[in-house]
Amino acid sequence: MNHEIADVKKQEHVLACLSSAPSNTKIIRTAAMMAEAFNCRFTALFVETPAHSHSAPQDKQRLETNRKLAEKLGANIETVYGEDIPYQIAEFARISGITHIVLGQSSVTKRHIFGKPSLTQLLLSYVPELDIHIIPDKATDTTYHPKKAKNNNNEKFLKNAVKSVLILLGATLLSLIFNEIGFTRPNIIMVYILGVLLTSIVTSHRVYSLISSIASVFIFNFLFTEPRFSLSAYETGYPVTFIIMFLTAYVTGTFAIRYKEQAKQSAKIAHRTKILFDTDQLLSKAENKEAILQTAGQQIEKLLGRGIVMFDNRERKLSDPMLFPENEKLSYDRAKELAVAQWVLEHNHIAGATTERFSDAKYLYFAIRLNERVYGVIGIDAKNGALDASENSILLSILGEAALALENEKNAREKEAAAILAESEQLRANLLRTISHDLRTPLTTISGNAGNLMRNSESFDEETKQQIYKDIFEDSMWLANLVENLLYSTRIEEGRMTLNTSPELVQEILDEALLHIKPNIQNHNISVKTQEELMLINADAKLIIQVITNLVENAVKYTPENTEIIISIEKEQNMACFKVADHGNGIPDDEKERIFEKFYSGKHKIADNRRSLGLGLYLCKAIVEAHGGTISVNDNKPMGSVFCFTIPLKEVPVHEQISDYGC
Ligand code: ADP
After folding, report:
1. pLDDT in tens, 537-563
2. Which of 587, 581, 553 is nearest to 642 (CA)?
3. Is the C-beta atom of 601 inside 6 A of ligand 1?
4. Of these four, 206, 366, 502, 586, which has the most CB atoms within 10 Å of its CB?
5. Taking a C-beta distance cutoff of 8 angstroms, is the pair 514, 528 a contact?
6. Which pTM was predicted?
7. How far is CA 387 from CA 80, 281, 302, 307, 601, in A?
8. Which atom of ligand 1 is nearest to the CA of 601?
9. Is the CB of 636 under 6 A from ligand 1?
10. What digits encode the pLDDT tens for the residues 589-612?
11. With a 6 A CB cut-off, is 555 part of the ligand 1 pocket?
């Protein structure tokens, strides 16, 4: 049962209707209280009518204050466009799942912004299922009526007046011609109606078409009705004709004006919708943080036609400002503006010009945020005044979209980093597991053998002792080589593999490698084939020796005792080619590539208890490639494998070879 109540509560959604009326604050507060009591969503809606653009500045300002109040009280601000206010509210309520609509009493009876007195009835007829709350307010300012902006622009007035007079003169001239030709009165009336229609189209206010309609009636009466050139008329029907003429002219003109305003409004909406749509598209294509901020900045600049400054959030510090348009100059007190932007970044709150905080700033700053996370700050040049409600709501949508895109980009980056981390963690875990396992066996053998020698050395005959010494030696050599390989691979992984290269003779490197390897090989026959021609390479000798050691150790490890291992060096074009050939079982084709992978130690384990870590060839490949060479494995004939690695030869003039290397 309680769950049911909770469910019902969750679905409640309170809507406050925004207006520029002083009493609107009470409506907003009541709606906010209701939303709090229901613990539900709260939206404040403003229906922008075509007439809104002509509102007086103080009304616009009050609307702005009301909008801010609603926002402060937790409302989601929305703007819809249309002339039929109750219809727009009802449509919005239906689409957004509103359950309670809060209106002011003044809105119902006398508010212009909510139009007709029948707003509640209309609303009820559109959405009878909703609760409509009418808020009585004794303190309502009954003298309040929304005012139109005063057109104190004399030049504009003069222009409109001249246009109206010229049209009227034109209509009169045409009518005089018609009269001369002998056209009937109704034709002349039509000419005047056409004149009023034209006036309403070319002028910016309906007062001109009103005056024009009245003037048309008087001129028609004066010039074209008997007695002519007087304002009286003989025919009894004329007063009716005049009234109908006036009404037709005026109504036609009014419709033309309304149509013009609607067309303007539609164009504005289409422009804004297009910007929103484009923003969506562009943001989805933006690949990184910078591109997202650039897109948002450009689109907002297009939307508002004002200078924009954007900052990225770099660990709670502002990035360098990005300016839109690009050639925009920050001509104000930079340090002061940056301080406001920094405040917005830290407090996740709007501030700057036209707000209560830092109102002396030149820009208005918004946080680009998603919930509590601030991704950046945008500043909007406020020299042309505050943003209107619809600009504000579209701006917030674009900022919301940008923040979402930034969040997605951040998530993608974090996921990638987590995947890399997981991979390296996994590798590290693998490495530790494998190493611990691999170290244990030889260490147990070494410590066991050494312990035996310590405790029972007298009881062992010489041959057994030699065998034990040999085992200890072999195991420790293996361990030493493993540690060497491990150290090199960690250096590769951490990107610290720096080559200490110097010009080296290939033959000398091989000799040194054999010096290390040979003492440890007792049960295989090693043969070496070198070339007469001396080859010089630029290499880190220690690393190349490690490669040869690994290859030969493998050949020993993976081939039967007493088989032959042939080590050779050849010159192949401009490369020195090292080859280690054995006569073991060879490597199946499907493993030839994989054996160079890290920790890959082949499908077919060897019978010998030799340990296999899968690092040797991985390291060989890394070292050879770091020297600009390649490594590969082929089948040996009749059996076994041939490992071959190449290192670029160093070009040396003949005289240098002789003098430097004494050959
Ligand atoms: P490890 O020898 O520690 O396993 P390596 O990277 O040196 O690691 O070798 C990878 C695998 O390649 C070996 O486990 C083995 O299966 C195969 N392999 C290497 N050298 C030879 C060889 N000469 N003959 C047959 N198999 C070999």
Report:
1. 999 998 999 999 999 999 998 999 999
2. 581
3. yes
4. 366
5. yes
6. 0.49
7. 16, 25, 14, 13, 69
8. 14
9. no
10. 999 999 998 878 776 555 454 567
11. yes
